Amino acid sequence: MPMMTPGTTPVYTFDLTGGEKLLRAAGACKVFDQLTGERPHVAKIRRLWTVGRLGLRLPFVVVGGTRYTSAEAIRWYIGATTALDHQRLDAAVGAAVAARAAPVTGAEKATLARFGIAEVG
């Protein structure tokens, strides 16, 4: 899984000299199936290339007008989006805890007392 520093966007670099095998969209679907057990439609791969998820697009290279990715890039993308999801969840939980820890105001105390939940004091 890639190292994620808050506030930065991860970057993937293809290693075309090291034997990284390029895959078209249909081949990428097979790799997703092998990794997750679910095969996405080819349109989803294209959407991940163009729109992405969480501000991160599936890495690709263009050769002769055709887009290609690799199994390594797909593994990297899954790890990077998972890390971004965890960051967003941690931030949301932290904000919720901070909001919950705020002191109860006078109006809130009065409302709680009216329903018999807390004593006014």
Describe the structure.
- The chain is mainly alpha-helical and 121 residues long.
- It has a domain of 71 residues.
- It is 50% helix and 8% strand.
- It is built from 4 helices and 3 strands; from the N terminus they run βααββαα.
- A 3-stranded antiparallel sheet has the order 1-3-2.
- α1 crosses α2.
- The protein is elongated and about 75 Å long.
- The model has no long low-confidence stretch (mean pLDDT 85).
Q: Gist?
A:
With 121 residues, the protein is mainly alpha-helical.
Shape: elongated
Q: How big a fraction of the residues is strand?
A: 5-15%
Mean pLDDT: 85
Output the helix-strand order.
EHHEEHH
Strand order of the largest sheet: 1-3-2
Number of helices: 4
Structural class: mainly alpha
Distance between the termini: 52 Å
Q: Let me know the number of strands.
A: 3
Helical residue percent? 40-55%
Task: Tell me the Rg in angstroms.
Answer: 23 Å
Could you describe the largest sheet, including whether it forms a barrel?
3 strands, antiparallel
- Runs in which pLDDT lies below 50 for 5 or more consecutive residues are none
